Amino acid sequence: MPVTTVKRVDPQALNLKENVVAINRVTKVVKGGKNMSFSALVVVGDAQARVVGFGVGKAKEVPSAIRKGIEAAKKNLRRVHLLESTIPHQVLGKFGAGLVMLKPAREGTGVIAGGPVRAVVQACGIPNVLTKSIGSHNPHNVVKATINALEQLRDIKAVREMRGLDISRSDASKPEPAKAE
Fold first, then answer.
1. Domains of the chain: residue spans and CATH
2. Residue 138: is it exposed, middle or buried by C-beta count within 10 angstroms (0-12/13-18/19+)?
3. Would you state the pLDDT for residue 172?
4. Which H helix or E strand runs over 52?
5. What whole-number distance in Å separates Cα of residue 86 and Cα of residue 81?
6. Beta strands at 78-79 and 51-59: parallel, antiparallel or unpaired
7. d(CA 13, CA 9)
8. What does 80-94 look like in DSSP terms, one character per residue?
9. Does position 36 have pLDDT exceeding 90, yes or no?
10. pLDDT per residue over 115-142, tens digit each?
11. Which residues contact 152 (CB under 8 A, 6 or more apart)?
12. Any idea what DSSP says for residue 15?
């Protein structure tokens, strides 16, 4: 799989909404006893700008962990290529043992997704999409697999240009009829 360079998105100009996906209590056993802390997985996104990101924060208290997760997510924002109300094509995202399949859906279908996938899809503002989470149900792997799937979505104009098709044509998917000589 080719390495894609992600262009940085400025979080200051966006209206970001935060969504806490998972909070986990973690314990480190040391000589003097157990040190408890909290880990928070947070998804942030702007539905109008089609931008989404995720972050993980760890701290001794839950609010501090969430705040750190939000800051990490703001540094990790990505732009998503969409059609008017759905994704342009079916895609399969992978991370670890987690697989997430995203399929385009008709107008009025809504977001058919569960848990972590729903958080990511709603954060980036996709109104109609079908999803299926396969393999690992670990929220960290599922969120990363969903982000990986969204990164694989390609802009229609860029694909037409890459294939050498006329960008101004709206029916570029149909082949041109053969000319009779």
1. 11-163 (3.30.230.10)
2. middle
3. 46
4. strand 51-59
5. 10
6. antiparallel
7. 9
8. ----SSS-SS-EEEE
9. yes
10. 899 999 999 999 999 999 999 999 999 9
11. 91, 93
12. -
